[in-house]
């Protein structure tokens, strides 16, 4: 299986290295002979050095000039070569355990996609409550909330933005 990890990024110089490091650690912890991957950062017209930092970390960088996250995800998917697409926000971290869970879901052959809820440490009470409400609503309504979404390439249809 070949997994393409697509990260839309707009002015994420402060966070992109940490995100890419979490991906590297997670991929190394889940290394197997039958599993390959690629990491694609979509520079969504950043004015900082997001693209340079991503290249230095070993990611392939694709440029999307129109600043819109849907367009950035679509640009990354168009460049991806994997049978599976994992979309991860540039301010999010991937853990080895979460990647292991994702790979188990993929390997069952029963699903065309999956996602994950968020945990954000250090939030004020009102922001924590807002996140909990959003999480419960998105789970109840079966919405793909966005920060981490996985789908089979043949099930992915780019939106028209």
Going by helix content, strand content and strand pairing, the class is: alpha/beta
Total individual domains: 1
Q: What is the percent of helical residues?
A: 25-40%
SSE ordering: EHEHEHEHEHE
Descriptive account of the structure:
The structure is a single chain. The chain is an alpha/beta fold and 161 residues long. It has a single domain (2-155), classed as Spore Coat Polysaccharide Biosynthesis Protein SpsA, Chain A (Alpha-Beta Complex), CATH 3.90.550.10. 39% of the residues lie in helices and 20% in strands. The protein has five helices and six strands, in the order βαβαβαβαβαβ. The protein has helices at 16-29, 50-56, 69-79, 96-108, 125-141; strands at residues 2-9, 36-43, 60-63, 84-88, 113-115, 148-152. It is globular.
Provide a compact summary of the structure:
The chain is an alpha/beta fold.
Provide tags for this entry.
single chain; 161 residues; alpha/beta; Spore Coat Polysaccharide Biosynthesis Protein SpsA, Chain A; 6-stranded mixed beta sheet; 5 helices; 39% helix
